[in-house]
Amino acid sequence: MSDELSGFTIGVTADRRRDELASLLERRGARIVLAPALRIVPIADDTELRAATRACLDTPPDIVMANTGIGMRGWLEAAEGWGLGEPLRAVLAGAYMVARGPKARGAIRAAGLQDQWSPDSESCEEVVEHLKEYGVAGKTIAMQLHGDRQPECSDALEAAGARVIEVPVYRWGPPTDPAPLHRLVDLIAGRLVDAVTFTSAPAVSALLRAAGPSADSVLDAMRHDVLAACVGPVTAAPLRRHNVPVIAPTRARLGAMVRTLVDELPQRALNLKIAGHVLTLRGHAAVIDGELKPLAPAPMAVLRALAATPGRVLSRAALLRTLPRGADEHAVEMAVARLRAGLGTPGVVQTVVKRGYRLPVD
């Protein structure tokens, strides 16, 4: 198959770049569940931003910490609107500028400014350590915030003797429509998606908040069955604190995250030799001798149960437990019939009279 992710279902929690990420994944054959966990909300009352800008003009910062590209662009655009664009650029040009990542660096350079340093990890902790080594005692630091306040960074710098001016440009808000996120929570808990992608650490927290009482079930699913893919180590940190194994590229880029998924997901697929055929189980599809066979949830659930113990006979009662509540043994027979029709290959699902069904392994 040329589509490396065919047969897999992947949740996308990004908002601003969700279409770009979904397109990258769909081009590789994946089925996508779009469920923005957050949205970026410009601060409606810009009093705080204007006050922070005035503070920077009155006391030019020695150091500027740029956290995000969208935040730096928003700050400079707002200053232009107040007629303070040129004075602000002049103040920033005289400061030691630190860009937390490539997007922030791009925004700085697009404004005709120059950054002096950027961390490999894109983490605030590494920036703080660098600045403490650089020397911050008695200096003023302008910190462009990444959505919400970052007290752990501000407090550490202030403890080292700096004066910190926090520059709030936007905040994280809940998604406009929360229904897709709640649906994704249910799909993760039910192991009905193969992977979930995250492009920001706050999106992880938002997903777990949306899960509410189901948060433990969501975390358990991501520890064992649902692959968590993060754009970089900063995004991955909250999941790692919950002991969730995470895949993340070395460079924090959407394309690199997609390539990591392409490398990892197919390796997690179950491969069996059944009745002279090669059978591979992917998220919502089986692959028989290289041909993709999409399956509905009930037939797929039956196939997964049979494949978990290939060669062993499973009774109708055992298979019934894999189907939604309220199903009966007739539903098992229907699911098996649909499974056989979907596979289109005789002999893969074998009936053992008066006992049940099995996959006859070679």
UniProtKB/TrEMBL annotation:
<keyword id="KW-0456">Lyase</keyword>
<dbReference type="InterPro" id="IPR036108">
    <property type="entry name" value="4pyrrol_syn_uPrphyn_synt_sf"/>
</dbReference>
<dbReference type="InterPro" id="IPR036388">
    <property type="entry name" value="WH-like_DNA-bd_sf"/>
</dbReference>
<dbReference type="GO" id="GO:0006355">
    <property type="term" value="P:regulation of DNA-templated transcription"/>
</dbReference>
<feature type="domain" description="OmpR/PhoB-type">
    <location>
        <begin position="269"/>
        <end position="361"/>
    </location>
</feature>
<dbReference type="GO" id="GO:0004852">
    <property type="term" value="F:uroporphyrinogen-III synthase activity"/>
</dbReference>
<dbReference type="Pfam" id="PF00486">
    <property type="entry name" value="Trans_reg_C"/>
</dbReference>
<dbReference type="InterPro" id="IPR001867">
    <property type="entry name" value="OmpR/PhoB-type_DNA-bd"/>
</dbReference>
<dbReference type="GO" id="GO:0000160">
    <property type="term" value="P:phosphorelay signal transduction system"/>
</dbReference>
<dbReference type="GO" id="GO:0003677">
    <property type="term" value="F:DNA binding"/>
</dbReference>
<dbReference type="InterPro" id="IPR003754">
    <property type="entry name" value="4pyrrol_synth_uPrphyn_synth"/>
</dbReference>
<dbReference type="Pfam" id="PF02602">
    <property type="entry name" value="HEM4"/>
</dbReference>
<dbReference type="GO" id="GO:0006780">
    <property type="term" value="P:uroporphyrinogen III biosynthetic process"/>
</dbReference>
<dbReference type="InterPro" id="IPR016032">
    <property type="entry name" value="Sig_transdc_resp-reg_C-effctor"/>
</dbReference>
<dbReference type="InterPro" id="IPR039793">
    <property type="entry name" value="UROS/Hem4"/>
</dbReference>
<protein>
    <submittedName>
        <fullName>Uroporphyrinogen-III synthase</fullName>
        <ecNumber>4.2.1.75</ecNumber>
    </submittedName>
</protein>
<feature type="DNA-binding region" description="OmpR/PhoB-type">
    <location>
        <begin position="269"/>
        <end position="361"/>
    </location>
</feature>
<keyword id="KW-0238">DNA-binding</keyword>
